[in-house]
Amino acid sequence: MSSSLVIDTRVRLRSGYELPLLGLGVYLNNDAKPACLAALKTGYRHIDSARMYGNEAQVGEAVRESGIPRSQIYITFDAPLIDPAFLQTRADLTTLTEAVKAAHRFAAAPAWRDIIIAPFAAAANTTADAGIEAYIAEQVATFRHPMGTARIATAEGPGVVDSSLLVEGAVGLRVVDASVFPHIFGAHLQAPVYAIAERASYLIKRAHNIPL
């Protein structure tokens, strides 16, 4: 049976906008323009990037040279409008303060005496909680490995997506990244995300009658 999934298959968001289901993710500056240009000529209409990559000019040049009207291309650049609520609870600040102290103790071990030649950050020069907390408040930021922000619904509670990774209340829209994990685990995210991606590829193929 032929597949209904094509390069311009779209899903309708609650806002009314239609988002191409398939897109090209761009990152490295030197590769952004040729990659985008090739993708647009192939038929892609969704370019996924981020302002922090600094490749707006390359993406823009690719769009201009492609000759495709800008109104037909969906480009994501800006960060989502969310508040991560860093340090909003005392427990967060206490945990990070103890982590900095542990790093101090580790770096002070005799084994590193001839290797560590100078402090790296201002927090290295203070052991007082107030000084460490001030450093944390100034430096805290995401490491871009968030998870669980669009969790799978479980018996323990509701979620953003169901067991097929489909967004509740939307049609045909799946989330396939670390945000779907219902719990935080003590491991690097890469391997589990690969597993979710493999599962998603199976689900999408099955939904569109593509041979498995």
From TrEMBL:
InterPro entries named in the record: Aldo/ket_reductase_CS (IPR018170), FAD/NAD-bd_sf (IPR036188), GMC_OxRdtase (IPR012132), GMC_OxRtase_C (IPR007867), NAD(P)_OxRdtase_dom_sf (IPR036812), NADP_OxRdtase_dom (IPR023210)
According to the entry, every stretch annotated as the NADP-dependent oxidoreductase domain falls at 30-76
One MF term from GO for this chain?
Answer: oxidoreductase activity, acting on CH-OH group of donors
Cofactor dependence is on: FAD
Query: Domain Glucose-methanol-choline oxidoreductase C-terminal, which positions?
Result: 77-197
Extract one GO BP annotation from the record.
secondary metabolite biosynthetic process
Family (UniProt): Belongs to the GMC oxidoreductase family.
Q: What is this protein called?
A: Uncharacterized protein
The scientific name of the source species is Ganoderma sinense ZZ0214-1
